[in-house]
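User: Here's a protein and a ligand (iron/sulfur cluster). What would the complex look like?
Assistant: Let me lay out the input and then the predicted complex.
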Amino acid sequence: MSGKTRALTNAEKNQSESALGGARLHRALLAWFDVEKRPLPWRATSDPYAIWMSEVMSQQTRVETVIPYYEKFLTAYPTVRTLAEAPVEDVLGLWSGLGYYRRARMLHRTAQEVVARHDGAFPRDKAALESLPGIGPYTAGAVASIAFQEPASVVDGNVVRVFARLFNDDTDGRAPAGLAHFRKRADALVSADRPGDWNQALMELGATVCTPREPRCLLCPLATVCEARSAGTARDLPRLTKKAKPVAAAFDALVVAAPNRVLLAERKADGLFGGLLEPPLFDTAPTLLEAAQQARLAIGDSLGIVQHTLSHRKLSIATHRAVHVLDVMPPLPVSGAYVALHAVEWPLPKDTRVSTLARKILALALET
Ligand code: SF4
């Protein structure tokens, strides 16, 4: 906390909440939402499949990035059954560039479970939704409240920020106990009449007005009841324990391209970039040289270094071109991270299942 004000005790906070009055908060925030909400495509539907899709895609991803993916997924797979029946490689290909690829694999698996266990109809309550693989409390609450009007709460980073400020609450919003605390607040305040709109309104306020660095309190529908605003602590909240810094890791990548084809390695299904294709990566220079020797490759020009930061790792990839002495695609040995090698059309067709990192590496080969 900033030290500008004394933290409230729990008893005081409870008192304060009831003083604010849930009904008053509901009226103010919902009236604002009705006028100010962004016209996002998933707000024009009550189809639980489409709402679920939008919620999975929106996790850790900006709305502007999600919209084109949401639209192309619903065009390619208009129903949960069509998604369930699609090859997972195609789903990964369509997801390519959206990041956090585990979400795509889980999306596919969840769709298969909805078809197998519920004959293609999404369960209508939060508890049953949460029993599906890949659906946690956040997504279950969002689908149950938005598609089925169940008064189930939803807590994401935006909601934590709004509640922390609204109640001048310095509970750590990243620690598990702190999250549980904010979930209780959210459960206590969810609107019984318009739960889906209430949840969306809280998230919308956090995304557009009560933003992390510069809350726009002058435009806020809750400004007159916001405790952090009157205490001058809004910018100090929420309190969040620091994330660990990404750990640096270095690899060598080999781009083996013949006319119209490039050699890509398929990663194991589980783990980072599961099931995606990429130019083979080697964690040390000797393993790179050994593999090249076995495949009768001559390591050619250095193409440069690709930097890429993931949530936990900061990757630095020294990229090399390789030339095959026999001028046909060589069988590189598959290392522990990979299950197969593929000679893929080059330049890559749209929706090839490659990560943004792989695209950066291949772009070097195209540019140089
Ligand atoms: S008044 Fe300011 S700090 Fe409080 S909820 Fe609104 S935008 Fe956030």
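Summary: The two ends are 52 Å apart (CA to CA).
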